[in-house]
Amino acid sequence: MELTLQAPRLTTTECCSTSSEAVSGDRVICRCLNVTESEAQTAISAFNVESVRELGRCTGAGKGCMACHGRLRSLIKAQMGQ
Ligand code: FES
Questions:
Q1: What is the best residue among 34, 55, 65 to mutate for testing ligand 1's pocket, by most ligand atoms within 8 Å of CB?
Q2: Distance of alpha carbon 20 from alpha carbon 12, whole angstroms
Q3: Mean pLDDT within 48-53
Q4: What crossing angle do the helices spanning 52-59 and 37-46 adopt, rounded to 10°?
Q5: Helical packing angle, 52-59 and 69-80, nearest 10°
């Protein structure tokens, strides 16, 4: 029997309760999981997110086709520099 450990995936509402609603005009940064830039930014600063993997745990971003990983990395890097 194989045992696989997985961190529970928080929903956007659990992780980013202050920004669960998409802000009008807010850019969707991950189309697969419909995560907006402001949701990602909120998670990055609220939970000191330092990697795409951590951001995925908080918001789900990047858990689909992975085409957004470069944008997510840039967003994390930009916010860490502030
Ligand atoms: S666009 Fe983010 S996983 Fe596909």
A1: 65
A2: 6
A3: 96
A4: 110
A5: 100
* Structure token pair of residue 17: 């309760």
Residue nearest (by alpha carbon) to ligand 1 atom 4:
65
pLDDT of residue 31: 97
**pTM for this model (two decimals):** 0.71
Mean pLDDT confidence for 10-37: 69
Q: What atom in ligand 1 is closest to the CA of residue 65?
A: 4
Residue 30 CB–ligand 1 contact under 6 Å: yes
- How confident is the model over 50-68, as a mean pLDDT? 97
Q: Which domains does the chain have, with CATH numbers?
A: 26-80 (1.10.10.1100)
| Amino acid letter for position 3 | L
Q: What is the spatial distance between Cα 57 and Cα 80, in angstroms, rounded to a whole number?
A: 18
